[in-house]
Amino acid sequence: MTDKTAKMKARLPRGFVDRVPEDLRAAEKMLATIRSVYELYGFEPIETPLVEYTDALGKFLPDQDRPNEGVFSLQDDDEQWLSLRYDLTAPLARHVAENFNEIQLPFRTYRNGWVFRNEKPGPGRFRQFMQFDADTVGAPGVAADAEMCMMAADTLERLGIARGDYVIRVNNRKVLDGVLESIGLAGDENANRRLNVLRAVDKLDKFGEEGVKLLLGEGRRDESGDFTKGAGLDAAAIAKVLEFTAAGSEDGQQTIANLRKVVEGNARGVEGVEELAQMQALFDAGNYQGRVKIDPSVVRGLEYYTGPVYEAELQFDVTNEKGEKVVFGSVGGGGRYDGLVSRFRGQPVPATGFSIGVSRLMTALKNLGKIGQEETIAPVLVTVMDGDAESLGHYQKFTQSLRDAGIRAEMYQGNWKKFGNQLKYADRRNSPLAIIQGGDERAQGEVQIKDLIEGKRLSGEIESNEEWRASRPAQVTVKEQDLVTEVQKILAAQADDRAKGLS
């Protein structure tokens, strides 16, 4: 008698998903396209492990006795803390620092893989998701940053996103840092207030200028009554920040002119604006007008960015879970992080990179109809009429001959004694063909090929014997040596029907 209390409940951890074959194939197709663009730009692949020493993941992580906020962590047998990687950038910085004397600078590399966040999951917010990154380490000039933006634009277009449906928005943290210095927020003692200002500016597209104004001041109360404490700036400081965010124009040169006025007299801010001007010149030379745009509202969240920052944003409308029409928004971003490798080396190592959120971008492509259930022909099913060793050998020979010809095929592995179950299995698998050979066919050296796709169509469409005789037969008998040739012929006819929309 089975103890029912011992039965384990099958349950998926919150914030994680199982992926089905259709999604996996669609994702692989998308990844191959991204990879081809990155390779075109001369980037090379590397791979880093899922687990890093926690202290290697960056200063932006909480400093606690047990570093379990934001990251999934465990202690090794030597009592050192290990964590699942939070992003792909910090592991790259560790790799570069550890192999600094062997790698060629500038080091141009790309990686894709899973990253993990120990955060509360929600709609569209997962604890495990895939990123696809490209980075250039050892290039101090902003030409490397401009290249990242142009490559991001090319990638989105190669994936089928039309011009006008996306924009790569670019800013420079030096410009914003200059504005913050000018309002008295320089120095380590103001680090938290600077972060609050960054967060407020980052909400510009969500709350508008009035909402950001509240977040820069005392705070903002939302529709539910929840209150978010603000950065506590005075009226003059708020006006200065809003002047910065309002400097954007459809014309890049005009935006740069506006920013020069905002940061006038601040050396750091002026340096940042001149870097944006250099990038704009490269965008113009490469004919990226309208595709890449200087936008002062872009801040990016992580503390390690030190210069240009950029965001890939999709601009078409989608319907959210509440039934509201909203702009799809960001699918990736990045920036310059000159201090990240330096943490290990103790010397300046310039670096810049761009990261695509694979799952989010895949959702966008599905919304546009650019990606969906990828067409994969199900296996041809070789049915089993007899289970003795000699018969199974014949069926295995048929199966192998199909595979050798590059045709997906499988021999039925269930209870062969109920032949009807084999055809039901083939139907559920959406198998295109079933291969059948009983004792009589074997004695004649023949095999039957049942066209399951045509059979379904005929059963639903043909109403008379005349139509049946005029149609493509749903089952044929061929010599064993002709099996592969006839299967190829029928599969080609099915492919032709699909192309014509007949099946």
TrEMBL record:
Transmembrane regions = none
List the keywords (alphabetical): Aminoacyl-tRNA synthetase, ATP-binding, Cytoplasm, Ligase, Nucleotide-binding, Protein biosynthesis
UniProt lists the family membership as follows: Belongs to the class-II aminoacyl-tRNA synthetase family.
- A GO molecular function for this record? histidine-tRNA ligase activity
* Broad EC category: ligase
Name the InterPro entries on file. Answer: aa-tRNA-synth_II (IPR006195), aa-tRNA-synth_II/BPL/LPL (IPR045864), Anticodon-bd (IPR004154), Anticodon-bd_dom_sf (IPR036621), His-tRNA-ligase (IPR015807), HisRS-like_core (IPR041715), HisRS/HisZ (IPR004516), HisRS_anticodon (IPR033656)
- GO biological process: what's one of them? histidyl-tRNA aminoacylation
The record's EC number reads 6.1.1.21
This protein's assembly is summarised as: Homodimer.
Q: Which GO terms describe its cellular component?
A: cytoplasm
- Residues the entry annotates as binding L-histidine: 87-89, 117, 131, 135, 300, 304-305
**HAMAP family under this entry?**
His_tRNA_synth (MF_00127)
Q: Spell out the protein name for this chain.
A: Histidine--tRNA ligase
Does the record's keyword annotation contain Nucleotide-binding?
Answer: yes
Q: Any keyword Lipid biosynthesis?
A: no
Recorded catalytic activity of this chain's protein: tRNA(His) + L-histidine + ATP = L-histidyl-tRNA(His) + AMP + diphosphate + H(+)
Could you tell me where this protein is found in the cell?
Answer: Cytoplasm
Q: Which PANTHER family match?
A: HISTIDINE--TRNA LIGASE, HISTIDYL-TRNA SYNTHETASE
The record's gene field reads hisS
